[in-house]
Amino acid sequence: MNDSTQKTGSWWSRLAGGLKRTSGALGTAISDLVMRGPLSPERIVEIEETLIRADLGVDFAARMATTMGEGRYKNLAEVKTVLAAEVEKVLSPVAKPLVAVGAKPFVILVVGVNGSGKTTTIGKLAARFRAEGKSVLLAAGDTFRAAAIEQLKIWGTRVGAPVIAREQGADAAGLAFEAVQAARTQGADVLLVDTAGRLQNRTELMDELEKIVRVMKKVDATAPHAVLLVLDATVGQNALSQVDVFLKIAGVTGLAMTKLDGTARGGILVAIAAKYRLPVHFIGVGEGVDDLAPFAAADFARAIAGME
């Protein structure tokens, strides 16, 4: 077995293991309903309700329940195969890699609420880009929290990426301006910019993010080249409203979903994909640097259905 096969295998194990709580809750409930004999209209409604409770979304739940109502299943494996196929249909169009090419530096503005795993995701992305041989600069733009600044500095040291930082309370837009200038001067391939995520005061957050984008454009009219929204899977339905808010505030271009290993609500990614059709670039199933990986629709669908 070569290295790439081993890495693929170990990622599949982590993904399947991480989604165990989601697939377990889903598989048990649906198999119990489906395997009880011919599906009555009442049982189809129960399947639909089960899928909605698993955060898979109302539209998907209705379609899936109808599909299951039309089939005849001999065993649980057949049910899981159908579920995986339907999930993959929704996710395949949004499974797109984040390719940092076409600009130098390629500026990625990273947004999301506090606690979503934003700063950690930036560190893991920096490690990925460094492994690809790219030079990376980090900007500690969440100047609201001293812990976020320190955390990014630790990641910078760990992955070999310089960090532009100021003291807590400094002007985030001024720091972003300085970071884009520094990235150009240093010839960095990628600039990752952290931001504050306090949704309690949306107007303040909106003003700050708009200002960050505005000053970046003074240095590079095409920046930011990507706006990555980091979502925490454990918040379930709240993730939908976060996508809504950040789309309006920051013009999100793609998603990363973290903490899929800590929840039975991993189905929310399906609901988000169906509603917003935003590219899903990465998913995370743990704290380790290798626990964030490019999103693959077929793998996710198989894992959420509890397939081996």
Map the helices and strands.
Elements: H1 3-18, H2 20-34, H3 41-53, H4 58-70, H5 76-91, E1 106-111, H6 118-131, E2 136-139, H7 146-159, E3 163-164, H8 172-186, E4 190-193, H9 202-219, E5 226-232, H10 238-250, E6 254-258, H11 268-276, E7 280-284, E8 292-294, H12 297-304
Parallel strand pairs: 1-4, 1-5, 2-3, 2-4, 5-6, 6-7
Antiparallel strand pairs: 7-8
Report on this structure.
The chain is of the alpha/beta class. It starts with a helix and ends with a helix. A hairpin with a 7-residue loop joins strand 7 (280-284) and strand 8 (292-294). It has an eight-stranded mixed beta sheet with strand order 3-2-4-1-5-6-7-8, sandwiched between helices. 53% of the residues lie in helices and 12% in strands. The chain is built from twelve helices and eight strands.
By helix and strand content, what is the structural category? alpha/beta
Name the shape in a single word: elongated
Largest sheet: 8 strands, mixed
Main β-sheet, spatial strand arrangement:
3-2-4-1-5-6-7-8
**Helix content range of the residues, please?**
40-55%
Mean pLDDT: 90
Rounded to the nearest angstrom, the radius of gyration is 21 Å
- How much of the sequence lies in strands comes to 5-15%
Low-confidence stretches: 1-7
How many individual helices?
A: 12
The helix/strand order is HHHHHEHEHEHEHEHEHEEH
N-C termini distance: 19 Å
Query: What is the tally of beta strands?
Result: 8
